[in-house]
Amino acid sequence: MIDRRDPPPIGRVVATEQKPATPHQFHFWTANETSIGIGAIVRVEGAGNREQGAGRVVYGVVTDGFAYSDLATPLHDVVGAEGDPAKAADSPTVRQEIRLWTAAVLRQKPEEPLQPVPLREVHVASDVDVAQPLRMDAYLGGAQPTAIPVGLYTSGGLEAPVYLDADFLLGPEAAHLNISGVSGLATKTSAVEFLLGSIFQHFPIHKGRIAAVCFNVKGPDLCFLDQPGALEDEDRRRYERLAVRAQPFERVRYYAPFKADGVNLNTLRTHPELVGDVEPLVWGLREVLDYAEVLLNRDDIDAKADAFIDFLSDRVVDKEFDDGFGGTHRVVTFADLERLFRSIFDGLELAARGDTWRTHHIATIRKVRNRLSNISTRCKGLVTDDGPSNDLPWGRFEDRAVYVVDVANVDPLGQDLVFARAVSKLREHLERRDLGVEAVVVFVDELNKYAPGDGPETYVKKMLLDISERGRYLGLVLFGAEQFRSQVHRRVVGNAGTTVFGRMDSDELATPGYQVLSPATKIKLATLPIGELMVRHPHFTQPIFVRFPRPAVLRGRDGVERFPPAADLPFDDAVVRQLVKLDRRVRPNLVKDLIADRREEDVRRALAHTRQARSQDALAHFTKQLGGRVAAAPALQRESVPPLTPISDEPY
Ligand SMILES: Nc1ncnc2c1ncn2[C@@H]1O[C@H](COP(=O)(O)OP(=O)(O)OP(=O)(O)O)[C@@H](O)[C@H]1O
Ligand SMILES: [Mg+2]
Questions:
Q1: What is the Å distance from ligand 2's center to 415 Cα?
Q2: Cβ(318)–Cβ(331) below 8 Å
């Protein structure tokens, strides 16, 4: 509801030679008792015809405040009270006190000619006014509105929804969002969760479909986005005021690699009620080789190693390949590749043919081999030899779905690989327009770690820069969060069209990046209460403070209390659980009998094939994949027995 009350004046513009009003700043005084404060939006209206500033309306936001009296020096006050503070109050003359405020101009109407602010009455802004100074009128109405609610502006007893422009938040005009602030009080993760919900509900139809890929990098942070969280009445009221429904995300898909055993998932969402919808993220040699650069340029940039990796990827993997020493190879897995490396080293040694093989120096080959074997040992569970890979649904992304990729417990090298591959794939598909959605928000928390301002040029950093600089044309949008903005790569934060601040650290505010803020605004930022944010957006000429409700999803730390993660299951139980997920009719004991004395890698391979096949009858497929010896086992006779009954209640 729009409030059309015209509030009485609360102040008057003053201008002196020392403190003149300019087209971009003005000063005004108010009564000592006033409802405004730093961040309040005010309106100055020019007078009627022929008077100064006729017809002009100026909107400003309060950036600083001062109080003083007519004393020339503090000495007079001390002498007047004879040096006793208790006597100061008895002073026969009550000194005039003044409240003086400084405001930065948000908008002038008309915009041309641009003139100093008229020395007229000052009013607090009404609901209607808030849309004007923030230039929201341009995208709030019209045939195709693009407004996304971000929070409530609250000041001077008023409360008005503030909207971001989807064209400037999610492309193509501008894009990306960066949020910073101290740990625990800045509500960075919460603000992004709330805003994603708001985007999903308000993303304009004419802009098409949208999805989000969220990397969970910290504990259980994003593991319960599909579960409702606790809200207070005030939160509900804010949701209503912002016209956003307070509900958890409807479509959330979770992906997590396995632990080293290859069957238990490496995530905190392992409670039996929830683990069912966590998909394993498993990659083989092909997937790793495509992004092997990630492994190389952590500490060096090596063109020779790059060339050798390209050679492996183009000429060797998945093809019949002659090693030049009389052996033929078909390299599909890491183990196959290791066999090829062995025969190269042995061949070179036996044939005494020097140090090069097919123009690649043996030192380069050794280096690449070490890096590849390094990743397959350090990221066991993500990178595997056990059959087909399982990946995000490239090409089948769903509208308004969140894809959470849990890499919180993955080795840093593996995290880099996941980022690199996931983002490159998103980019590739968006370029070809065959991802399934037109726009994707990629949320990366802890940008300090992944795109630091100093340190080596890693592949991940290059990629985050690439999204920041070119993503908006593709619909690839980066939402990044970090504690210290000054420590994130300049171009990553610089390219964010929308910047949000929660409670800030004072040391951080003293760094050069915050010089444009007035001292009072900095103090407000350093003491900002939980749930309040400062927003910069291309349409707003000055930063604006807004309040937002708690996200309607279960907080990570409440989630692990309500759904405690299950202990790792023994191998056979974990296999059962995976199979039951594919086909609820599968009977645990049959599976256990079937795999009792089989090699674990064979079981994992059969499981991976079964997962890939998405067969109606998972157990039959699994049994077939496991092959051979078990022909007489009862499970194989399933074809002739009636369909299995659901056993969803059985605990694992
Ligand atoms: N709008 C809100 N109103 C009141 N409390 C909130 C609001 N949003 C979040 N909170 C609370 O603030 C706390 C911190 O939030 P959050 O975890 O999002 O902060 P963070 O900045 O991401 O912290 P960290 O740097 O540790 O990740 C949480 O306990 C959360 O419940
Ligand atoms: Mg956080």
A1: 18
A2: yes
Task: Give the binding-site residues of ligand 1, using a 6 Å CB cut-off.
Answer: 181, 183-184, 186-190, 483, 502, 530-531, 548-550, 555
CATH code of the domain containing 466: 3.40.50.300
508 touches 463 (CB < 8 A): no
Confidence of residue 636 (pLDDT cuts 50, 70, 90): very low
* 310 and 410 belong to one structural domain: no
Listed residue (173, 189, 213) closest to 533, CA to CA: 189
Determine how many CB atoms are found less than 10 A away from the CB of residue 289: 22
Q: Is residue 4 scored above 50 in pLDDT? A: no
Whether residue 359 is contained in a domain is answered as yes
Mode of pairing for the β-strands spanning 210-216 and 439-444: parallel
Please tell me the distance between residue 476's alpha carbon and the centre of ligand 1 in angstroms.
26
SS (HEC) of 93-125: CCCCEEEEEEEEEEEEECCCCCCCCCCCEEEEC
If one residue of 444, 530, 532 were mutated to test the ligand 1 pocket, choosing by the most ligand atoms within 8 A of its CB, it would be 530
Residues 312 and 357 in one domain: yes
- Dihedral, CA of residue 12, residue 18, residue 21 and residue 26, to nearest 10: -60
**Contact 118/56 with Cβ under 8 angstroms?**
yes
Q: How would DSSP label each residue in 252-275?
A: EEEEE-B-TTSSSBSSS---TTTG
pTM of the model: 0.88
Give yes or no for a contact between 61 and 41, defined as CB atoms under 8 angstroms apart.
yes
Distance 189 CA to ligand 1 centre (A): 7
Q: Please name which of 31, 16, 52, 44 lies closest in space to residue 103, comparing C-alpha atoms.
A: 44
Closest CA to 275 of 528, 596, 567: 567
Quote the domain boundaries for residue 92.
11-133
- pLDDT, one tens digit per residue, over 384-433 is 877 778 899 999 999 999 999 999 999 888 898 899 899 999 999 999 99
pLDDT band of residue 54 (cuts 50, 70, 90) is: low
Q: How many other CB atoms are found less than 10 A from the CB of residue 87?
A: 11
The residue type found at 431 is: E
Q: Whose CA is nearest to atom 11 of ligand 1?
A: 187
Decide which of 560, 586, 611 is a domain's last residue: 560
Q: What are 452's two structure tokens? A: 């630091």
| pLDDT tens-digit series, residues 161-176 | 999 999 999 989 999 9
Q: Final residue of a domain: which of 108, 133, 158?
A: 133
**Residue 486 DSSP symbol:** G
How is residue 550 written in tokens?
């708690």
DSSP string, 508-529: HHTSGGGTTS-HHHHHHHHTPP
Q: What pLDDT digit, counting tens, does each position of 430-456 carry?
A: 999 999 999 999 999 999 989 999 888
Same domain, 276 and 290: no
Q: How many CA atoms lie within 13 A of 18 on its CB side?
A: 0
Six-digit token pair at 565? 């993660």
Q: What's the gap between Cα 247 and its chain centre?
A: 19
Average pLDDT, the chain: 88
Distance 602 CA to ligand 2 centre (A): 40
Which residue's alpha carbon is nearest to atom 24 within ligand 1?
Answer: 183
CB 480 within 8 Å of CB 178: yes
Q: How far from chain centre, in Å, is Cα 405?
A: 11
Residues 409 and 507 in one domain: yes
1: tokens are: 């509801």
Asked whether the predicted pLDDT for residue 633 surpasses 60, the reply is no
Task: Report pLDDT digits (tens) over 453-506.
Answer: 988 888 888 889 999 999 999 999 999 999 999 999 999 999 999 999 999 999
